[in-house]
Amino acid sequence: MSEWWTYTPSDFLLFSARTYYRLFELYNRDIWPGQLVALALGVVILACLFIRAAWRAKLVAAILAAGWLWVAWAFHAERYTTINWAAHYFAIGFAVEALLLLRAGVVRAEPADMPARSPITVAGIGLFLFALIVQPLIGLMLGRPWSQAEIFGMAPDPTVAATLGILLTTGRRPRWLLMIIPIVWCLISGATLWTMGSQDAWVMPVIALLSVLLAVREALSARPQ
Length: 225
Hints:
Layout: H1 17-31, H2 34-48, H3 56-77, H4 87-104, H5 114-117, H6 119-141, H7 156-167, H8 176-196, H9 203-222
C-alpha cells in the first residue's frame, strides 16, 4: 500500500478530463437548440442594462434565476451526478442561488446612468460580456471541439461569471449574500479543472478574485466620508 504522501489531487478525482468534457458534448447535443435561446436571453439582459424601465430588474432576475435553475437540474442533477457524487450538492447550491436572485431582484440602479457612473460598473458589464462571448470560445482556443462549448445559462461556469458581472453593475453596495455561492463555485470549478490538468483552470478563480476586489472597492467608496 502506498504511503499517503505519495498521492496527488488527481488520484482522488473520480473522472478524467476526457470524461468531463465528453459530458459537455453529450449535454450540448441533448439540449440543442437551447444554447441559441440562452444566448438570446443573454443579449436581452445586456439590453436591459441600458433601458430605463421599471420592469427590467424583474426580467433580469428572472432570466438569471432560470439559468441557475436549469443548470441545477439539467446539468448537475441529471448529468454531472453520473460522474461526480458531489454534483447533488452543487444542484442544491445552484437552486438556492436562483431563489436568492429572484428574491433580491438583482439589478436596482437606474440603467441609463450605469455605464458612466463607475469603473466598477463598466467592469461588471465587461465580465458579463466575457461570460457571454469569450468563455464559450476558450475551449476552442485550447483545442477542444465546438460541441464541448460551455454556454451562458446552460453551463455552470459562464452562468456564474455572468451573474457576478451583473451583481457588479448594481451601482450600489455589493450584494454579498448573492455573491457567496458564485464565489464558492469559482473555487470549486478552478480546483476541479486544475486537478484535471486543464489549461483554463485559472479562469474562474481569477474571476472570483476580481469580483471580490471590485465589490470591496465599491463598498468602501459607498461609505460616508
